[in-house]
Amino acid sequence: MKEIKVTPPTNSLEPDNSTTRRRYMPGIDGLRALSVIAVIAYHLDLNWAPGGLIGVGIFFVLSGYLITDQIIQRWKQDRRFDLKDFWIRRARRLLPAMFVMLFVTAMWLLLFDRSRLAALQGDFLSSTLYFNNWWLIFHDVSYFESFGPPSPIGHLWSLAIEEQFYFIWPLVIIVGLRLAPQRGKLIVMCLTGAFLSALAMALIYQPGVDPSRVYYGTDTRAFALLIGAALALAWPSQNLTDKISRRSRYILDFSGAIGLITLILMIWRTNEYGQFLYYGGLVLVSILSAIVIAVLAHPASRLAKIMGCKPLRWIGVRSYSIYIWHYPVIILTNPTVDTGGFDGFRVLFQLGVSLLLASLSWKYIEEPIRQGLLGRWCTKLSIHLQFKIRPLFIFIAVPLIILSISCSSNLDTKISADPNTGTITNPDKNEHNVTLVPPQNIPTPVPVPVPVPVDPPKKPEPQPQVEEAGKGVTAIGDSVILDAAPYLQELLPGIVIDGKVGRQMSQAQEVVDKLRTKGKLGTRVIINLGTNGAFNSNQLRKLLISLEDVQQVVLVNTRVPKKWQNTVNTLLKKVALEFPNAMVVDWHSSSEGKDSYFYEDGVHLKREGAKSYAALVAKAIQKENQ
Asked: Among the four 50, 60, 118, 335, which has the fewest Cβ within 10 Å?
């Protein structure tokens, strides 16, 4: 029998197991690589990975499996589990790299965008203390539909869920091992918890409404961790042997390949706005992930050897570093307004910087600290701290240092007035300065005589009758339609405009019904919705069915620098084909490359953009009239 090489774990989700010898599973690192690649592709808005967010779900299942596997192994050896040692090793493994990333991000914002740093104080504190996901939930921060520059540390919500699991789950499983040591009962316990979690997601989720609550929640995402834990109880890594029959090996690899291919297809075909993910899709991801993990953990698996190839293993080993660094790099290097479409050079630059920072973090921070660098530093510097104080410093002192950097930006956020110019400024607001001009003694201007023209004025030429151009036209939309409203009224006099900031497609039917009741719904209806979030085909189809009695429905697609842009535009085009009175006006293509049309959020229209938008919509209405 071949000697099995034992290598200490080297990446984020594999427990730091310096005292328990474990079989190294290179295929698991390959799966980590696939997961982090999917997440990065999703954050880069690459068209081939709209479902890349399921990479986080795969990570959750891995965490549940590896942590529970470690606890079970240690319990079998010693009939006990040292919780304090486990928590300290988890902190030593995860916190230093994250704190360095937070420090660098805070310093960058302090130097280049202080007002933004001040707005992110709560995010920094909640991230360092691992309750960021609940902070985002309680402050109604959307993962999918938020405007303005995204938080460069907005991805840390998933690490908060994992750390909460690392703190609570060992207590639960140890109690379970004492009270019900039979594996069958513990597996049932895990699967029952997973079922309740999945049920909570399905019950709390509301179709057509921002799904951030169920996406962020520890309660609604725990099923992935618990399915991984159940796998560890049923499939402990140390009990697996490479001495299996050829038929069993075939079944093993075939099952893993089917599971892996299905996960890749879901990364390619699903997206965060469909109901499927929240009504069982993410549970399916967890089950498929568990099947793949079971195969990759088996020493007889050929698939594990393929997934454990050197390039994937290199990425997988550094997956934690890559995950924590890639998002701030992407967010801080993306332009505020970008109507130019995909920029391959920028994507390559972001990938290169992310991998470089991750490599440096892994080599000079994570591995040295995991090997005891902090302890050696303390000895060399003659800092005689008790062992209990060191983790206290990590958990409290370092977060306070990071928070103090973000708080320092508040020094410049107080409203101040220049005594000479009277200008009142507030850097927290990126809009306009208010200028107070003191009253002055302004001399009365001397009237200038106007010469009388020699020739009598010509009679004005008759103007075309355009007073009725907008009669019978109703526009329903959000803040974008409000930006263009003055120019629509100029081009289509008599148009009825019903716009509201933040309006979603889910509210459109109510607006249509009210306008129809009041007799203000015209025979030609303009719909501009989708700026504030995605919707599903059933919502749009239901709205268009209610408008089948009108002559023309103009659906204006959207330009918004958010992930739902392509989803909205594709859906509008697809559903409009089902209704003969519906057409799509392509504002997205018309505004491509026109950064000057938009304010800094890349959505709301300046004068030039509003005039262009109005002209495009008016042309569609007038063309139909002709």
From this structure: 335
Among candidate residues 338, 428, 595, 601, the one labeled active-site is: 601
CB 570 within 8 A of CB 581: no
Per DSSP, what are the bridge partners of residue 497? 475
Q: What is d(CA 358, CA 525) in angstroms, rounded to the nearest whole number?
A: 52
Spatial CB neighbours of 520, under 8 Å, sequence gap ≥ 6 = 474, 496
Active site residue 601: yes
Measured over all CA atoms, what is the biggest interatomic distance in the chain, rounded to whole angstroms?
Answer: 114
Pinpoint the alpha helices (H) of 79-156.
Answer: 83-112, 114-119, 121-128, 132-138
Rounded CA-CA distance 533/312 in Å is 35
Q: Which of 69, 478, 604, 612 is catalytic?
A: 604
Q: What is the pLDDT of residues 10-26, one digit of tens each?
A: 333 343 444 446 778 99
Q: Looking up tokens 């008599």, which residue turns up?
A: 494
Question: Which residue type occupies 494?
Answer: G
Stretch (H or E) spanning 165: helix 157-179
The whole-model pTM stands at 0.78
List 197, 319, 409, 479, catalytic entry: 479
Phi, then psi, of 526 in degrees rounded to 5: -100, 130
CB within 8 Å of 516: residues ≥ 6 apart: none
Known catalytic residue at 432: no
